[in-house]
From TrEMBL:
Keyword DNA-binding: no
Location of this chain's protein in the cell: Mitochondrion matrix
GO biological process, one term: fatty acid beta-oxidation
Pathway: Lipid metabolism; fatty acid beta-oxidation
Catalytic activity, EC: 5.3.3.8
Top-level EC class as recorded in UniProt: isomerase
Gene name in the database record: ECI1
Source superkingdom: Eukaryota
The organism's taxonomic lineage, starting at the top: Eukaryota, Metazoa, Chordata, Craniata, Vertebrata
Gene3D superfamilies the record matches: 2-enoyl-CoA Hydratase, Chain A, domain 1 (3.90.226.10), 6.10.250.170
Annotated catalysed reactions: (3Z)-octenoyl-CoA = (2E)-octenoyl-CoA; (3Z)-hexenoyl-CoA = (2E)-hexenoyl-CoA; (3Z)-dodecenoyl-CoA = (2E)-dodecenoyl-CoA; (2E)-tetradecenoyl-CoA = (3Z)-tetradecenoyl-CoA
Family classification: Belongs to the enoyl-CoA hydratase/isomerase family.
Name of this chain's protein: Enoyl-CoA delta isomerase 1, mitochondrial
Originating species: Oreochromis niloticus
Length: 303
């Protein structure tokens, strides 16, 4: 069965060899350096770079969408395509998500994709946001967020979809669901994801006040799992991944699914209503006005 799974994905001798050895637990130890080199693959879109090391079964996804890795429709589409590819490759067991941008993990949803756009665009955009969340939250892979910068709103959501969060211990960074500060309401599945992460009471306060937490505060409430110096975020994520990889996949995956399925099912069975709700809400004049003011504030802050 496992062998058949190995044979399914990659054609050719090299693919076959690498698949066979990635199905055994110590494949890389027996291989020539040349073959080991072939076991690394890299794919780059404009917005993300994915490096997959078949010898470890771990991929690293680097978000590289300047200036702040905001989640635009294009960015979300690239992420979803990359995730789908990794998910289909059974030799990929773990994924680390991090940022190539200095100081920012992700600024959350691209406000320009919600401001002054047609209802049709808003529909496409929101479907892509849902899709990214469903893919990450329901992933069979071990997912670790290496949060090497600020991570407000949708950026925080993205990190919360992962199994483990390691954040740079820099007091200038912040993380949280700050939607109410923009005059918008976090959808029910943002709220549910946060409840699943930090509990009901903390979520209630965090969401109503739109709180952004420093790394130390985030660690205290369990929004992140570990703080490390900035230059050690990725190495710590890699070390942590090794520990998680020691757990048999099937047991870990079933457990993850047991924990997350009710939340996933809730969105899956309400996707269309959630899209309609978003479009109705986001195209309101009052919401557009507050988004416009928020954008101006961001631009002024820079000047
Ligand atoms: C039922 C209805 C439900 C509706 C639910 C909608 C849900 C929304 C969830 C969201 O994610 S909304 C987005 C919320 N995001 C934020 O509040 C983050 C705003 N950004 C920041 O706080 C800061 O930019 C930062 C991320 C902390 C980085 O700070 P830094 O000082 O390094 O950079 P800036 O000078 O502020 O920004 C540089 C540049 O980037 C633009 N920008 C920042 N964030 C966004 C964004 N989210 N979308 C689009 N553009 C963004 C900013 O305007 C600057 O642009 P410029 O042209 O270079 O001046």
């Amino acid at each position: 069965m496992a062998l058949r799974a190995c044979l399914r994905t990659k054609p050719g001798l090299t693919g076959l060899l690498s698949q066979l050895s990635s199905c055994s637990s110590h494949g890389a130890a027996h291989m020539s350096p040349a073959l080991v080199a072939q076991r690394r693959s890299s794919s780059t879109s404009q917005k993300i770079k994915v490096d997959f090391d078949q010898s470890t079964g771990v991929a690293v996804m680097r978000m590289q969408s300047p200036p702040v890795n905001s989640l635009s429709l294009e960015f979300l589409t690239d992420v979803c395509i990359a995730l789908e590819k990794l998910e289909m490759d059974k030799s990929c067991r773990g994924l680390i998500v991090t940022s190539s941008q200095p100081k920012v993990f992700s600024a959350g949803l691209n406000i320009l994709d919600m401001y002054g756009k047609s209802p049709e665009h808003c529909v496409e955009f929101w479907k892509a946001v849902q899709e990214m969340w469903l893919k990450f939250y329901g992933s069979n892979m071990i997912t670790i967020a290496a949060v090497n910068g600020s991570s407000p709103a949708g950026g925080c959501l993205l990190s919360m979809t992962c199994d483990y969060r390691i954040m740079a211990d820099n007091p200038r960074y912040s993380i949280g669901l700050n939607e109410t500060q923009l005059g918008i309401v976090a959808p029910f599945w943002f709220k549910d994801t946060m409840i699943n992460t930090v509990g009901h009471r903390t979520t209630e306060m965090a969401l109503q006040l739109g709180l952004l937490y420093s790394p130390a505060e985030a660690l205290k409430i369990g929004l992140v799992d570990q703080l490390v110096p900035e230059d050690q975020v990725l190495t710590t994520a890699t070390e942590t991944m090794t520990k998680w990889l020691a757990i048999p996949d099937h047991a870990r995956q079933l457990t993850k699914s047991m924990m997350r399925k009710p939340t996933i099912d809730k969105l899956t069975s309400n996707r269309e209503a959630d899209v309609n709700n978003f479009v109705k809400f986001i195209t309101k004049d009052s919401i557009q006005k507050s988004l416009g003011m928020y954008l101006e504030m961001l631009k002024r802050r820079k000047a």
